[in-house]
Specification:
Layout: E1 6-15, E2 19-24, E3 27-32, E4 39-48, E5 51-61, H1 87-107, E6 114-119, E7 130-136, E8 145-149, E9 157-159, H2 168-186, E10 202-209, E11 215-222, H3 231-238, E12 245-253, E13 266-271, E14 275-279, E15 282-286, H4 296-315, E16 324-328, H5 334-339, E17 345-350, H6 353-365, E18 371-375, H7 378-381, E19 391-394, H8 403-411, E20 416-421, H9 424-436, E21 439-447, E22 457-464
Parallel strand pairs: 3-5, 6-21, 11-12, 16-17, 16-19, 17-18, 19-20
Antiparallel strand pairs: 1-2, 1-4, 2-3, 4-5, 7-8, 7-10, 8-9, 10-11, 12-13, 14-15, 20-22, 21-22
Helix pairs in contact: 1-9
Length: 472
C-alpha cells in the first residue's frame, strides 16, 4: 500500500477512541469513524513502518446487525459515533475497549481483580443537560448554520435541529436563534466569527437545562467586533413554547482566539445567571460555565458506584468512618459532597478557581461544614495541606495525572484509592506507575455516561500491597 491508494476491507475491531482496524487484501489499515463488521472503502493517507492509516471514503456495506440511525444528522455531524449500532452492541464494544486497555495492567499483577461489566445510562436519548452550539457555515459562502462541527472538519458547521441527545427545548431554542439571525446574516448586517480570519461576531449558543427542575439558561456568546441590540432576540426566546422554564438569557463577550466558550464578561439580558440542579439528594448551583457532568442521571450512576466502593470498604472495616478523604481534581465538588456524610473531613483540590468557588457555595447550600476546597495545581497544593488522607479519590481531566503529581499522591501510602477516569487510555498509562509503587486493581467497572458517542467512564478501586507488584 502507498499513499492515495484506495482499498476495501472489513472492519475487524474498533479500538478506543473509535479507531477502526480494517483488514484488506493488502494488509491492515487504521481508520477513524467506522463500526465493527462494516465493509468500507478507504483512501490511504500515511504508511510508516508497515503501519497504514487511511480516511473513510464510503461504507460499502453495513454490518449485518446494523439499525437505521434515529438521527437525521448522523454521518455529517461529528458528535455521535454509534447510532447505527444496537445499544447492547455499543455497550459490548465499549466494555471490550476498556478491558483491552486494562489487560496489560492485569498481566502485571497476580492479585485477584473483579471486573463488574458496564453500567448503562438510565436514558439513551435527550440525556444532555448542556450543549455548546457553534455558528458558522457548512460550505464556504453558504447560509448561516448553528450546530456541531462537521465530521472530520475544524471549520464547517452542521445545523443540528434534529439532534437526538438533547430534548425538544434545545431544538426549539436553536431553531429560533438561527431563524432570528439568518435574515440579518443574509443582508450582511451580522457575521459569524471566522476562526482563520479571526473576524466576525456570532460565536456560540450555550444552552443548559436542569433535569430535575426544567430550568433553562441560554447564553449567546459573541465577540465585541460588532454592536447589536439583543432585546428583540431576548423577546423571541421568551415567546417560545417550551416544556422547561427560562431562568436566564445571557450575553457573553469572548474575543479569545481559542475555539472555546471563554467568559470575558457576561451581561444578563433576562432573569438570572444560574439555576439549581439536584443530584442524589444534594443541591447544586449551576452557572453557564460550571463544570457539571453533562448527563445528570448517568452521573448519579457513576457517583453511586464510587460511594458503593467506599461503603463496601466501611462494611469490611477496611477503613474507618472518621477518616480524611482527598478528592483530587474535584471540579465543583460533587464527589466530595456526596462523601462528606461518611467522613470526618473531605478536602477537594481543583485548579479552576470558578469551580472551587462553586464547590464552596454548593457545600453551604447542602449544610456541609466538613468540606474544604482549595484552588491550585494538585502538584503544588499537596505540599501545603497539613491533614494527611486516609483515602484518595482521583477524578482527573482527560489527559490523566501529571507523573510528578502522581508520585506525590503515591507517597501518602494510603491503603485505598479510587480512580474515576473519563479516558481509559490515560488510566492505563497512570496504572503503570501506580503498580510499580505497590498498588493493584481490585475492582473495576465501566459506565456509559455518553450513549452513542465513543466516550466511556471507568472506575477502578486500587489497593496498596506490601512491596511492589510482580509480573504475572
Amino acid at each position: 500500500m502507498k499513499k492515495k491508494d484506495v482499498v476495501q476491507g472489513i472492519v475487524k475491531k474498533v479500538e478506543f477512541p473509535n479507531k477502526g482496524i480494517v483488514e484488506t487484501t493488502e494488509g491492515r489499515v487504521v481508520v477513524k469513524g467506522v463500526l465493527p463488521d462494516q465493509r468500507v472503502s478507504v483512501q490511504i493517507q500515511k504508511v510508516r513502518n508497515g503501519r497504514a492509516e487511511g480516511r473513510l471514503l464510503e461504507v460499502v456495506e453495513e454490518a449485518k446487525n446494523s439499525v437505521e440511525s434515529p438521527c437525521i444528522h448522523f454521518g455529517k455531524c461529528g458528535g455521535c459515533s454509534y447510532l447505527t449500532m444496537p445499544y447492547v452492541k455499543e455497550l459490548g464494544l465499549k466494555e471490550q475497549q476498556v478491558k483491552t486497555l486494562l489487560k496489560p495492567a492485569l498481566d502485571r499483577q497476580t492479585n485477584k481483580f473483579t471486573w463488574e461489566g458496564i453500567k448503562t445510562s438510565p436514558v439513551k436519548f435527550a440525556y444532555r443537560n448542556k450543549m455548546e452550539f457553534t455558528f458558522g457555515d457548512e460550505v464556504m459562502g453558504g447560509p448561516l448554520c448553528l450546530g456541531m462541527h462537521k465530521r472530520g472538519s475544524f471549520y464547517d458547521i452542521v445545523t443540528v435541529s434534529g439532534c437526538r441527545i438533547v430534548d425538544d427545548d434545545y431544538k426549539k431554542i436553536l431553531s429560533a436563534t438561527l431563524d432570528y439571525f439568518s435574515p440579518m446574516y443574509d443582508r450582511g448586517e451580522v457575521s459569524f466569527y471566522h476562526r482563520m480570519k479571526q473576524v466576525g461576531y456570532l460565536r456560540h449558543l450555550l444552552v443548559r437545562k436542569a433535569v430535575r427542575t426544567g430550568d433553562i439558561l441560554i447564553d449567546l456568546v459573541t465577540t465585541t467586533q460588532e454592536e447589536h441590540d439583543l432585546t428583540p432576540f431576548k423577546d423571541t426566546l421568551l415567546g417560545l413554547d417550551l416544556t422547561g422554564r427560562i431562568s436566564g438569557i445571557l450575553h457573553t463577550k469572548n474575543d479569545s482566539l481559542a475555539d472555546a466558550v471563554i467568559d470575558e464578561g457576561t451581561e444578563i439580558l433576562y432573569g438570572q445567571d444560574f439555576f439549581y440542579e439536584y443530584l442524589l439528594g444534594l443541591k447544586f448551583r449551576i452557572t453557564p460555565f460550571s463544570f457539571f457532568q453533562t448527563n445528570s442521571l448517568s452521573a448519579e450512576v457513576l457517583y453511586q458506584t464510587v460511594r458503593g466502593y467506599i461503603r463496601s470498604l466501611y462494611d469490611q472495616k477496611a477503613i474507618s468512618k472518621d477518616g480524611i478523604i482527598y478528592d483530587l481534581y474535584s471540579g465543583t465538588g460533587t464527589i466530595a459532597q456526596l462523601l462528606a456524610p461518611v467522613a470526618n473531613k473531605v478536602i477537594g483540590v481543583e485548579i479552576v478557581e470558578e469551580a472551587v468557588e462553586a464547590a464552596k457555595t454548593n457545600a453551604q447550600l447542602n449544610n456541609l461544614d466538613n468540606c474544604e476546597f482549595i484552588t491550585g495545581d494538585v502538584l503544588k497544593v499537596l505540599d501545603e495541606i497539613e491533614d494527611k488522607p486516609d483515602l484518595i479519590i482521583l477524578d482527573p481531566p482527560r489527559d490523566g495525572i501529571n507523573p510528578k503529581a502522581l508520585q506525590k499522591i503515591i507517597g501518602y501510602g494510603v491503603k485505598y484509592m479510587i480512580y474515576v477516569s473519563c479516558k481509559p487510555t490515560s488510566l492505563a498509562r497512570d496504572l503503570e506507575m501506580l503498580q510499580e509503587s505497590g498498588y493493584v486493581m481490585t475492582r473495576g467497572v465501566a459506565v456509559d455516561q455518553f450513549p452513542w458517542t465513543s466516550h466511556v467512564e471507568t472506575v477502578v478501586l486500587l489497593t496498596r500491597t506490601e512491596g511492589t507488584t510482580e509480573a504475572g
